[in-house]
Amino acid sequence: MNDSDGSSHRTIDAASGRRRSMVWLLVGIVLVAANLRAALTGVGSLLPRIEVSTGLSSTWTGLLSTLPLLTFAATSPLVGRTAHRYGAPRALVVSLAVLAAGLVMRSLPGVFFLFAGTVVIAAAIAYGNVLMPSVIKRTVPENRIGQATGLYVTAMSLLAALSSGVSVPLAEHLPGGWRTALGIWAVLAVLALAIWLPRYRRTGPMAAPPVARARIPWRSPLAWQVSVFMGLQSLGFYTMIAWLPSILHDHRVGEAAAGWQLFLFQMVGMVSSSALPILARRVKDQRIQAAAGSVIVALGYVLLAVAPQLAVVSSVLIGLGGGACLVLALSFQGQRAADPEQAAALASMAQSVGYLVAAAGPLLLGTLRDLTGSWTLPLLLLVALTLTQAAVGARAGRDLHLNSPSPAPVPIGD
């Protein structure tokens, strides 16, 4: 009787321990996700203030917005190898510590620290970007990948939107101005570090996965479709993050109001990215969703170009379609893979190629703005790229794995 009771208590304690561990794991994932954009999105709201303070031109501030994407592209292929060798917990712990240090560096006086800190921050964020799809692929059932992705996209988008909205008020009220407003996000990185550090200590510094690392699928057409879709939707997002406040400012909208407009764009995107996995949880073929979301974004760009006085409607359309495309782009990296190792390899490729594509956006639009003196041509270019995104998404959204053959066409007579 006593042995039975003891066994029962041990079983209950073990189950309770697993639940607690899972809760803390989810908390850790959400906190990592919260750090993946907040450190960068506040820059867009502060660009007019940064330009005045530093004397940088639109081209140079466009480069400042492009640097994170170039760094993502350069760093992403290294993440899988590092995580395989040292273990994902250690990779996350080190990247979060580097992120906190980079945020402090970026807030120091001097243009050098502004640019160097941005590179350090982006390199740290790249690790979280690549590791997330693999973690979700390993820990959740296949039919829940979209919902789990929606959870961390919601956390990522919420903090990104808050960063855009509060950056100007923080710069106005905190000592140190815009530099302090950018550096304050180090607190969020430290919180995430506090959650992941115990996991690093339990697994040990040299813990590594017991399975072979999958090769990056450079020769797969489906992997390229996923990567280009990732890149084009990221190009649109980061271009809006960088330049939407400046576009509105050029049409006599105040800095704080423009920052809250950017907040609206991201909040609508967050709602869209949260709702899509719920509304389409049983839909395995996402071609229509990817194409429709892209077309909605293109309509928002058209409206912003021809009727900037309706910028609120434009922000809603761009956020609505962009939020859907974001969660699809991230879901594809897990759903198009056959196993967690292949998901990590696909994520490395998608985020390396994708962010290399996206890097052209802020810099190109800033340069076109300097050359033409108007935002019309840059916005029309975004329309063309987003329609291309719709076509690519219609291919990336097919219900296939990387190692699966394409579905054979059905004869007309059948």
UniProtKB/TrEMBL annotation:
Q: Where is it mainly found?
A: membrane
Judging by the UniProt lineage, the source's domain of life is: Bacteria
- Kindly list any coiled-coil regions of this protein: none
Q: Which UniProt keywords apply?
A: Membrane, Transmembrane, Transmembrane helix
- Protein's membrane topology: Multi-pass membrane protein
Q: Which GO terms describe its molecular function?
A: transmembrane transporter activity
Name the PROSITE patterns on file. Answer: MFS
Gene3D superfamilies to which the protein is assigned, alphabetical: MFS general substrate transporter like domains
> What are the GO cellular component annotations?
plasma membrane
Q: Where is the Major facilitator superfamily (MFS) profile domain?
A: 21-401
Intracellular or extracellular location(s): Cell membrane
What protein name applies here? MFS transporter
